[in-house]
Amino acid sequence: MGSYPLEKFVAVAEGAAREAGQFIRAELGRVRAEQVLEKEKNSLVSYVDIETERMLADALRPLLPGAGFLTEESTQALHSDSDYCWIIDPLDGTTNFLKGIPVFSVSIALAFRMEPIMGVVYDVMQEEAFTAWQDGGAHLNGRRISVSDVGQLDDAIVATGFPYKAGYRPQLSEIFTEVLHHSRGIRRLGSAALDLAYTAAGRFDAYYETRLNAWDIAAGILIVREAGGRASNFRNASGGILRAHHVMASNGLVHDELLQLVSKAPLDD
After folding, report:
1. Which of 144, 177, 195 is the last residue of a domain?
2. How confident is the model at residue 80 (pLDDT cuts 50, 70, 90)?
3. pLDDT for 42
4. Residue 16 lies in domain
């Protein structure tokens, strides 16, 4: 891996995310039904997602000419000959946004050979920027953050989400019930990037979800790790996590205990 000023990249990415957030907030409540497309069952997209993605790519491209882009709305071309790739979710929590539920985020990561090395998750409505770069620690609006010190799953607040495909729900419902019985409680925000960021900040003690894409989790994974936490897939592998479509993150102390429950989930690697 070459030597790049990752801290500077984070600052630029945070600025781009904040600018994008201004645009997203301005469009809240203004998107008409006929301007919303359904990519697949319950997976929605609007012009806000697409325009935000273009704004972010334009801001990031000069930092690392030749780097690829992996983006949710596919507005940018992926250059497969580069080891570096920007991974962007312009609006994580689109359904929340379209319903006026104020929980959605912008997620930006830079990956080297599909391993995240810097990340920004921006909570649009709270104006909170969670940032991290490799070996630089994790921060919230410039202040250092760390994962919680909860040591047992019984005392943990666990976050999760549910896939759009109905076929996975019966088995995941069983796992949800087990986690509910073995934890202090479960939360569901509707933004995987924020679930991970909140885990990094100690607001959640752990998080698990399946049927995800790299843009949902790339930035958040690094932020959790730099905050002293642990991230893996459901098979307990920490490498190649962006290709797995399932993720579990925690403060590290409750990881193995929760992993025993979620590892029963049906997986498509």
Report:
1. 144
2. low
3. 47
4. 6-144
